[in-house]
Amino acid sequence: MSISAWLELIASGLITGGIYALVALGLNLQYGLMRILNIAHGEFLMVGATSRGWRRVRWAFLRC
């Protein structure tokens, strides 16, 4: 593997780990405040990821 592939793999792992950390912190904060485990964070994560992907595709077509 080339060095650029390794750097891309490391960056991807750090970004994915950061997303998991933010989801875990959100669940921890919500449970700590309300003492109720709400699993709706996954829905908000998917809405955010879908909207970000949609905007990225749309903006890529506008730049061409």
What is the helix content? over 70%
Mean pLDDT: 84
What fraction of residues sit in β-strands?
under 5%
Distance between the termini: 31 Å
Q: Structural class, judged by helices and strands?
A: mainly alpha
Instruction: Note the run of SSEs as H and E.
Output: HH
Distinct helical segment count: 2
Question: What is the makeup of the main sheet?
Answer: none
- Runs with pLDDT <50, length 5+? none
What is the rounded Rg?
Answer: 16 Å
Overall geometric form: flat
Brief overview, please?
By secondary structure, the chain is an all-alpha fold. It has helices at 3-34, 41-63. The chain is 86% helix and 0% strand.
Features:
64 residues, 2 helices, 0% strand, flat, single chain
Q: What would you say this structure looks like, in words?
A:
- The structure is a single chain.
- The protein is an all-alpha fold.
- It has helices spanning 3-34, 41-63.
- The longest helix is centred in the first third of the chain and has 32 residues, at 3-34.
- The two termini are 31 Å apart.
